[in-house]
Amino acid sequence: MQIKRENISPTEIKLTVIADKSELDSIKSIVLKKLSGDIKVPGFRAGHAPVNLIEKQINPATLQNEFLNDSVNQLFEQAIVHEKIRVINQPEISITKFVPFSTMEFTADVEVVGEVRLADYKTVKVAPKKAEVTAKDVNAIIDNLLSRAAEKKEVKRVVKDGDEVILDFKGVDLKTKDPIAGAESQDYPLVIGSNSFIPGFEEKLVGLKANESKSFTITFPIDYAAPELQGRKVSFDITIKKVCELVKPKADDKFAASLGPFKTFEELKVDAKKQLIAEKKREADQQYDNEVLKAISDSSHVDIPKSLVNQEIDRMEEEEKRNLVYRGQTWQEHLDAEKVTEEEHHERQRPIAEERIKSGLLLGEIAEKEKISVTPEELETRIVLLKTQYQDPAMQKELDQPENRRDLTSRLMIEKTLDRLRTYASKKPSN
Questions:
Q1: Boundary of a domain, candidates 218, 247, 276
Q2: Which residues contact 412 (CB under 8 A, 6 or more apart)?
Q3: Is the dihedral of CA 85, 90, 92, 97 positive or negative?
Q4: 193 and 242 share a domain?
Q5: Model confidence over 170-200: pLDDT tens digits?
Q6: What DSSP assignment string belongs to 10-71?
Q7: Would you report the helix, strand and coil content of the chain in percent, each value rounded to 5?
Q8: Where in the sequence is the domain holding 20, given as residue range(s)?
Q9: Residue 259 lies inside a defined structural domain of this protein
Q10: Is residue 202 within a helix (H) or strand (E), and if so which, with residue range?
């Protein structure tokens, strides 16, 4: 086989493939064997007749189509392996010369991952992150547990800090008076002072009584989680329907025992601190990994195909649309709130999508250089652990599906590669 390569751009390649006669003979034999099962030749059992007799019984158009399909697929796969290119989508094939079973020439226009120039990742150093937990953090957890176990006593007095109120509310844009998606509810329970609602909202309820209403305006923080509400002024109409005083249980051994296998209240605090440290460590490790990978990415270069970036943007937007459904907002309402067109929203995601793809490709490159792999035993161990977490038989069955096994293998590969990078990044330089 002869291969001619033309680089159209950093991410586009045209391959011209010219097959050898011996290769075509081999492919033809395979095709005839594949088709022989459906052919009956007098005097021979199915599939046992000589090839030359089988060929005479096959429709020439059927044989030629099968031959073309198999030869192009096989030769193209060999060509991309020979050229060491990573194809990201189906090629555009053009048959430029074909004499049945003796001559084959075709071109393949393909989009590929371009040049990867990986930085010296072993020299990247990032200071490790500490998972710090204070007594105040632990006390906040305990106080939250006490609040959740509190007895609720309805009272007729005005709302004060620490009370739970049941309220109806509705929010509209201050200027347009258009309803705000997700800013309307009935019989909503809210603990005053919990800081679980929009900043400034809970304080507006202090001093009201049951059956009293109030209107007020809240300016959403500039860093609010929902981008479409950042810095936005929203007018709320609220009605208090019930006021309850929360009587917390006593913080003692009896309370600790009601939450789990704790003999003393002190054991509960120790466990709360342990869980909090584990959570903080996970957060610190994730932040550390992101910083290490960002440092490597900033010093590396990858030519990324545009279509690959567009695919990632599409995935990001699909996830965003699913989240909007939970908030009761349509995609168009979201676009209107952010004052962008669908095309502008799509393009705004491009830098994030490019960075995600670049990081993934660099991790793959590092894994290859470090000869990191996932053994069958490691995969099975992870699947067993997941099956202990998910008791649902249907979910356990899903874990054994080939696509999920491939996904788990990919995740394990990423984890092992990040572990290796963490080792390099935290290692002190030798004198």
A1: 247
A2: 374, 378, 379, 382
A3: positive
A4: yes
A5: 999 888 888 887 788 999 999 998 888 889 9
A6: TTEEEEEEE--HHHHHHHHHHHHHHHGGG---TTS-TT-S-HHHHHHHS-HHHHHHHHHHHH
A7: 50, 20, 30
A8: 2-114
A9: no
A10: none
Closest alpha carbon to 50 in 66, 33, 65, 74: 33
In a domain, residue 384? The reply is yes
pTM higher than the cut 0.90: no
Q: Please report, for the domain that includes residue 208, its CATH number.
A: 3.10.50.40
User: pLDDT tens, 28-85?
Assistant: 888 888 777 666 666 666 656 666 666 677 778 888 998 999 999 999 999 999 999 9
Q: Which two tokens stand for residue 244?
A: 């309850």
Write b or e for each residue in 55-78: b if 16 or more Cβ atoms lie within 10 A of its Cβ, otherwise e: beebeeeebeebbbeebbebbbee
pLDDT 10s digits, 406-430: 999 999 999 999 999 999 998 776 5
Query: Could you tell me what percent of the chain has a pLDDT over 90?
Result: 66
What's the domain count of the chain? Answer: 3
For residue 245, the cross-strand partners are 153
Residues 20 and 110 in one domain: yes
